[in-house]
């Protein structure tokens, strides 16, 4: 690769389009190219920007760049000013550095954003938004609370409006949505918050309106690399276009065959038309898949060639020959038979000797296996139930489930008791009640190392009485008191046996931070409000196990969507429930579907 960079100036001195098939070592090539730019003095670290699709991909790329530079020059230089990360994070840093007013702004991630909008829903005309949705879209989705439905639909509408670079008046026929959108942006400014789509919108807005700012940014960032270019949406492409001045070197990396995010607004046309839209483009192919065996490559190629709108290319194999049984299709008369087969295969393969790429041999772990589904939320439960019954550990992504974990449900019950939240609701009777200390103990005693029931209930009631008199409180601090009450600080709980439980308790701490981070301070009433946040949002948004950590540090079968599996590799993969189903279109919500080009 190094000789290639030396012999072909177009790889470093022209705009570059890298067409990289799956498993082709694109991260290796990109990291070496950036390291080469620095080692040869073609660019300084502070002049380089590398956009990745996820923070996990950013960490891997930056680690490799450091390693490559050390190989090229013999020591490790300071590259702290080199930016490797997501586009929205770059926009946040750009605003803070170049537009002083944004230095006091904080980030609203998804959980904090829901909590913030919920807290101000009256200002946004929640009742009118709900009435409009019901009149235009019918009833809410089954199993979803009305407030969750309305706020999530509003959030999606806001993001699409910004990412498509339209005004709310142009994209929506609902005047209440237009008013709510404007009020939401005012509230963000008032409370000094930025959500992910506003970071990009405000960055683009400032670059377009301030010529001096645009000039300063272009002088600062002279070499730009964009990974997963096929998944770029309109506002991201607009930002890239703004950053690319006459002296800028732009490198885009991707594969139109791997474009899977059209449903989120990306357009494959960006990568298809890149050489026409940018001048003096050098095109480089990485056509060899080093990850997969020839069977998988031939199967994938045979399928993808049916796409009519694609770049001309052919994926080749690296000589890895598949064995009989490596890739197969099995038909079952019923889903129960399919599930039984998967469970038995997991049990059979667990511990079987497997040879890694470096020839190291070891037994297959649960974390080496994955189940990919079209929708974990809608299709996953039967497979999760079967693994529960078989005693197979699993980590889920994309279905929520954190608050179904026994240890987390116990703590939710304690919060509900302390705040007077009616967690136990009887829908037929239309009434509910808060959990009682005795019932909480009975539930918790099977999970935690507790004292006697008498002592536990006495301590819990004392905590309840103590909170009543507090004008202000810290929910994270209260959580610490609850964990101490449950004796989570005992050594017996900090063992490998409780690895997933400890992870789940950490995720619950994040949910508390997400709620608390949108408020100047909390009062006793916020205990009940936090319980509502759990019921209306968190139950479906926070994954259990290691669901949001696909690095597989926890030894459990990974259950995720096909989209979530992008960029990952597993020795054993199951793809069940591959049946022909009607397309489930997402309702347009507050937006006019004719105004934009994706579902």
Write up what this structure looks like.
There is one protein chain. The chain has 599 residues and is of the alpha/beta class. The protein has 5 domains: 2-96 and 201-286, Rossmann fold; 108-191, no CATH class; 291-324, no CATH class; 335-399 and 549-574, Rossmann fold; 403-539, PCRA, domain 4. Helices cover 47% and strands 11% of the residues. Helix 13 links the parallel strand 6 and strand 7. Helix 5 packs across helix 11 (196-209), helix 6 (110-119) crosses helix 24 (499-516) and helix 20 (406-419) runs antiparallel to helix 21. It is globular, with a radius of gyration of 26 Å. Mean pLDDT is 90; it is low at 547-552.
**Estimated structural class:** alpha/beta
Please identify which CATH superfamily of the largest domain we are dealing with: P-loop containing nucleotide triphosphate hydrolases
Q: What does the overall shape look like?
A: globular
User: What separation lies between the terminal Cα atoms?
Assistant: 41 Å
Which fold name fills CATH's third level, the topology of the largest domain?
A: Rossmann fold
Unreliable residue runs = 547-552
Q: What is the number of E strands?
A: 18
Strand content: 5-15%
- Report the top-level CATH class of the largest domain: Alpha Beta
Q: Biggest sheet, open or closed, and with what strands and sense? A: 6 strands, parallel
Mean pLDDT: 90
Number of helices: 25
Main sheet strand line-up: 3-2-6-7-1-8
